[in-house]
Amino acid sequence: SPTMKEAAVVPDNPLFEGHLYKKGEVGFIKGWKKRYFFIQENDMKMFYFTSIASANNPTIFPLGYIPLVSVTSVGEEEDASENYFQITIPGRIYHLRAEDASVKHEWVNAINNCLDNYQITVAQKKRELIEREPLVK
Questions:
Q1: Which range (22-26, 67-71, 93-97, 121-125) has the least confidence?
Q2: Contact (CB, 8 A) for 53 and 66
Q3: Which of 42, 51, 67, 87 is buried most deeply by CB count within 10 Å?
Q4: Strands across the sheet with 84-89, in order?
């Protein structure tokens, strides 16, 4: 999974933030761990830390991040309680659990809004490039 080692990151006007439980993927303990997540829209990344305090400490690196630019789907976890959702990127599925169903919906909406905004930005940049192209006579 991608980890961030090049520079520390602190929440900078995040699109959305809060606690979620993340299911571990490695090691013997594949249990649920409470993590503090925030969506940094300008980076298209959903960073996660052990706590809010560590997220706001510029000397502490994130445990990792979900590259939102690579997301193929965000949605309900099949056959699971309504607090669960998953984020799929090529090669990995992140299993997440919110405190309750309404918080889960807020996260799913925030992630989808971020993805929608990104698509709009990409489309606008493509249009600007096309408009700037000199017409070949």
A1: 22-26
A2: no
A3: 87
A4: 64-67, 45-49, 32-40, 16-23, 92-97, 84-89, 73-76
**CA distances (Å), origin 34, targets 29, 76, 85, 98, 112:** 14, 19, 15, 10, 22
| Helices of type H across 1-137 | 52-55, 101-132
Q: Which residue, chain included where needed, has tokens 């993340």?
A: 22
Supply the pTM of this predicted model.
0.82
Give the pLDDT band (50/70/90) at residue 30.
Answer: confident
* Apex 87 CA angle, 44 and 110, nearest 5: 55
The answer to whether 6 and 66 are in contact (CB under 8 A) is no
Exposure b/e, 98-124, CB count within 10 A at least 16 = b: beeeeebeebbebbeebeeeeeeeeee
Q: Is the per-residue pLDDT at 1 higher than 60?
A: no
pLDDT tens-digit readout, 86-100 = 999 999 999 999 999
Rounded Cα distance, 26 and 13, in Å: 31
